[in-house]
Structure formats: C-alpha cells, structure tokens
Amino acid sequence: MNDWAPIAKEYDPLKAGSIDGTDEEPHDRAIWRAMLARYVPNKGVTGDPHLTLFVARLNLQTTEEKLKEVFSRYGDIRKIRLVRDLVTGFSKGYAFIEYKEERALLKAHRDANRLVIDQHEIFVDFELERTLKGWIPRRLGGGFGGKKESGQLRFGGRDRPFRKPINLPNMKNDFYGEGSAEKRNWSREGTRDWRTRDRDHERSRDKRWPERDRSWAWGESERERDSKEERSRGRERKDRDR
C-alpha cells in the first residue's frame, strides 16, 4: 500500500482493467488481446514526447487553426498534429500539440482539460505512447478511460485514476466456535436459548391452530347461511311476480 498511486507509472493491461489495480485474472477479451499484443510505437512520429500533449474528444469540425488559437494562450507551440483518416481526410477527433517549453506544457495540462471547444468538452493528457513503459493503445485492448456503455473501461490514467484498495481485517467468526473458550461457551448458551425460544413459539402456534380452524369453519357456515337466505328471497320474489 505504500507504493500505491492513482496514476499508473508503468502500463499493465491486467491492472488497467481493474478499478483498483488488484485484478489477478482478465475479465474481458480485450485485456487478453492487450496482454498478448506486441506494440511498437510509430517511428515516423517526430518531436519531443516529454513536451507533447494529447488532446482528445474534439469536435470533428475543429481545425488546426482553432487548436492553435486556443492552446497558444499557454505558451509557444512548436507543432500541432491533428490526426486524420488516410482515405477520407476527415478528423478522427484527437490531436498532439508540442510546446517549446515545459512550463507551457504543464500549464496547458492543468488548465485546458475539460475545456469546451466547438461545443465539445475536450480531454487533455500527456503523450503516453512514447513516455509510458509497456503502453498498449486502445485499438489493441489497452489505453485508459473509456465509456461505461462499451464495457471496456481502463483505469490508472487521468480520466479514470485507480481507486485505493480496501483491505478488510481478518475477523474470526465466534458463532462457529472460533476464538476464546469464554466466547465459545457464550455462543453455545445463545444457541440453546434460541432453540428453547423456537420450541415455545411452535407450542403456542399449535395451541392457536384449533381456534383458527373454528373461526374458518364459522366463517364458512355464515357464508352458506347468507347464500341460502338470498336464494329464499329470490324465490319469494318470483312467487309474487306470478
């Protein structure tokens, strides 16, 4: 518990799939896929990863010019890379922004998260692909965050940090004879009391049964008597009509 942290220092797909990082077995197929994956970061990506921000959940209509206008408030920008589809050229909804100074990077990381751009609340984090050891992307069953509806939740990142594990103390159950002799004697006496109490309850219930039977019989005779009276009244009415 001393080395526990809400943010993962090294990516482990099995721990990322657990809300507190204590799972021992994968609970979905995506975790199996991430554990078996051998991912190598894209060597074609240039720039300093320790000065780069990851910006996600963008409006598909948001452009590089809009991102530069918003994120240049925090410092000088060296490069903006808005990820687009290779075939259609449309935005995929996330981008990478490289700053010239670490101070600007930290300020943008602190203040720009959950900022609204083009009616979309964005998510901002450090680039993890080249900085976090063992990183597995979302498409291979890894990543962080995720929507509950998809069922592929991943913990240990800024969006969904780990929750502190709950360690319950080992408590002995004295009812089944564990613990000291005094407690065991007390538990046995208690069980005898419960048995006598149940026995008395059964006896009182047996005494009440004849009374209930009489009451039910009386109720049935009353109903029969009422039905007979109604029949006789109906016959008298028919005779009068004749």
TrEMBL record:
The keyword Cell division does not apply. One of its GO terms (cellular component) is U12-type spliceosomal complex. GO terms for biological process: mRNA splicing, via spliceosome. It is found in: Nucleus. Its main location: nucleus. InterPro entries: Nucleotide-bd_a/b_plait_sf (IPR012677), RBD_domain_sf (IPR035979), RRM_dom (IPR000504), snRNP35_RRM (IPR034146), U1_U11-U12_snRNP_70-35kDa (IPR051183). SMART domains: RRM. Residues 147-242 are annotated as: Disordered. This is U11/U12 small nuclear ribonucleoprotein 35 kDa protein.
